[in-house]
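Sample intake — PBP family phospholipid-binding protein
Collected from: Faecalicatena orotica
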Amino acid sequence: MEKTELNFVCTGMKTGKKIPIEYTGRGQNISPEFIIKNLLPNAKTLAITLEDLTHPIKKFTHWIIWNIPATDKIEKGIPAGKKVLGNAVQGVGYGFHQYAGPKPPKGKKHIYLFTIYALDCELNISANSMKGTFLRRAKGHIIQSGNVIGEFE
């Protein structure tokens, strides 16, 4: 079965453009609001990753969260903690169980990738897991995914 791309917007951000300061480690360091446009009806949960594509460690994970109830709007400012938004789990990204916005070295522009995954189930994974574990366990359950790329200096 061919997957339908998941279309979404990161409020205040356009693909390929600068990430708003409030979503960065130099601003309020809060997760953005996401508006999802074409979520399939059989989606049960959503997951989000934020990766730094420019970091010396390839695809360095700043944030990972899964088991967000399927919805067309994810509010900004998801709080720190292993369990949030009901059953949602924040795994280990940037060494923490929370959103860690872009904060590259001063004067260096980095490229960041937000990816949202729609899954047909809830995953039973330890909050101490990282992106690799999430992707292995989600394999075969991801029914849609999409991304938005931004930059920050």
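Post-analysis note: The chain has one domain: 8-152.
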